[in-house]
């Protein structure tokens, strides 16, 4: 019986690496994809040595959307699960005054991830099995002054995943939206984060593995974020616009 295979896009991030190790520990073969794929060879070697699975690296650029279809067709094996960890926090202040910086944040968090998952949706639907997983953000659930460019891109990605899930549900393909909340990563290392609300990358990995196995639709890595965002979404706009968030 063939072992399952997972493809992780944006494989250089802390969350991506944790997801790779979780699935590999469960016996899954791993495909890692990112720009400068040669730099992922050490990760592949570690996965092979530590877990005894196949692990390979592939060159992938989320922003080169014109290459996405050919990237999918070039893979030696269509994976059973694709996890898109592509993303860029950016700096809100810079995005407000630099259209190119804002465009990069939007393309990195919405256009690129939506494009590549759309490319995988076609063969997955034809095969009638598998899971497409997108890492979104609580920032996408309501626009806040502190990160609304990033948040608006994640809001678009969340809506895209919802629509893709609705489209593919009859084909047997799962589409899973992962909402991590705060996570201790290199991207957040200079931030002061509340411990109760902040997950470790390994928690994200465990949550993604469970979600794939249970064919979930939307998951919050720490359940407390579901209640927090429910409360934030219900604040009247007249009140919300005066809040400092």
């Amino acid at each position: 019986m063939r072992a399952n295979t997972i493809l992780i896009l944006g494989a250089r991030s802390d969350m991506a690496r944790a997801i790779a190790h979780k699935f590999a520990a469960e016996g899954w073969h791993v495909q890692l994809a990112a720009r400068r794929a040669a730099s992922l060879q050490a990760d592949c070697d570690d996965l092979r040595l530590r877990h005894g699975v196949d692990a390979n690296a592939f060159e992938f650029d989320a922003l080169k959307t014109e290459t996405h279809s050919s990237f999918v067709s070039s893979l030696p094996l269509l994976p059973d699960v694709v996890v898109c960890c592509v993303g860029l926090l950016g700096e809100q202040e810079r995005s407000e005054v630099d259209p190119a910086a804002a465009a990069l944040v939007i393309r990195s968090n919405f256009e690129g991830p939506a494009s590549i998952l759309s490319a995988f949706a076609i063969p997955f639907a034809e095969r009638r099995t598998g899971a497409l997983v997108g890492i979104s953000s609580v920032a996408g659930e309501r626009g806040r002054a502190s990160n609304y460019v990033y948040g608006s891109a994640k809001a678009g990605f969340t809506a895209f995943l919802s629509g893709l899930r609705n489209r593919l549900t009859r084909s047997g393909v799962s589409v899973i939206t992962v909402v991590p909340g705060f996570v201790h990563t290199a991207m957040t290392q200079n931030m002061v984060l509340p411990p109760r609300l902040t997950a470790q990358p390994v928690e994200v990995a465990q949550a993604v593995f469970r979600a794939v196995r249970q064919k979930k639709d939307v998951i919050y890595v720490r359940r407390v974020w579901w209640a927090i965002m429910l409360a934030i979404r219900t604040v009247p706009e007249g009140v919300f616009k005066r809040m400092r968030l």
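The mean pLDDT is 95. The longest strand covers residues 29-34.
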